[in-house]
Amino acid sequence: MIFAANFKTHHTRTATHAYLEALKEKVSLRPEERIVVFPPATALDSYDTDFTVGAQNAYPTYNGAFTGEIGAEQLEEFGIRAILIGHSERREILGESQSFVAEKFRFFQEAGLEIVYCIGEPLEVREAGDDAVIAFLKAQFEGIDTTYEKLIVAYEPIWAIGTGRAATVAEIAATHAALKDIVAKPILYGGSVKPNNAGEILAIESVDGVLVGSASLEADSFAAIVAAGRA
């Protein structure tokens, strides 16, 4: 079971150190569990923790003339070996195309990083029915090596991210089952995962973990989600 926390544009380096210390006191990892925390770029550091710390984003370069970006050189400084790629906020707000997302994927695959690759559909696609959803999600694998050994997929319906509206158990189960036919990798669910719904989501057979946004910002809340996954 994989529990991933995406801080987005929240927390500082000092706050992230305190968070990881608090989480360590609240959660003792079991052999079958992993916790991956994605702080913002300014909070990347060499953390003394059993949890994996990853980057939310990086440019597909070792270094170079890319103002405002970070590359593999900056990740190496802190021993960062995991990265989020394809998050809907990068696609929708910052305009990252599928071809650019695939370029990022190939670069960090060659660098040997673990990749949590995000896919998800907007509300109008969901309302068009299951076939439309699966066709939309399949297109987000264009240019992606789904056999990569360090690949984790995160399915996040865009209409459920930060809205308080999670997909139903039936919707999650059906979509994850279809995705398992496309990619034989762990598949996380993300989209308004909270302590009060994490248990039923994590009990779905085709769900291998969760990618949590706002409910991961407090160590108490994220620890409660881990506890729900154990129930």
Element layout with pairings:
Blueprint: E1 2-6, H1 13-26, E2 34-38, E3 52-53, H2 72-77, E4 82-85, H3 88-92, H4 98-110, E5 114-119, H5 123-127, H6 130-139, E6 151-155, H7 169-180, E7 187-190, H8 198-202, E8 209-212, H9 219-230
Main sheet makeup = 8 strands, parallel
Structural class: alpha/beta
Mean pLDDT: 96
Which percent bin holds the helix content? 25-40%
CATH top level? Alpha Beta
Give the end-to-end Cα distance, rounded to a whole number of Å: 13 Å
Assess the beta-strand content as a share of residues.
15-25%
Total beta strand runs: 8
Q: CATH homologous superfamily? A: Aldolase class I
- Work out the helix count: 9
Strand order of the main beta sheet, please?
Answer: 3-2-1-8-7-6-5-4
- CA-based gyration radius: 17 Å
Domains (count): 1
From N to C, what is the helix and strand string?
A: EHEEHEHHEHHEHEHEH
How would you portray this structure in words?
The protein is an alpha/beta fold and 231 residues long. The chain has a single domain (2-230), classed as Aldolase class I (TIM Barrel), CATH 3.20.20.70. It is 35% helix and 15% strand. It has an eight-stranded parallel β-sheet. Helix 1 (13-26) links the parallel strand 1 (2-6) and strand 2. The longest helix is centred in the N-terminal third of the chain and has 14 residues, at 13-26. The protein starts with a strand and ends with a helix.
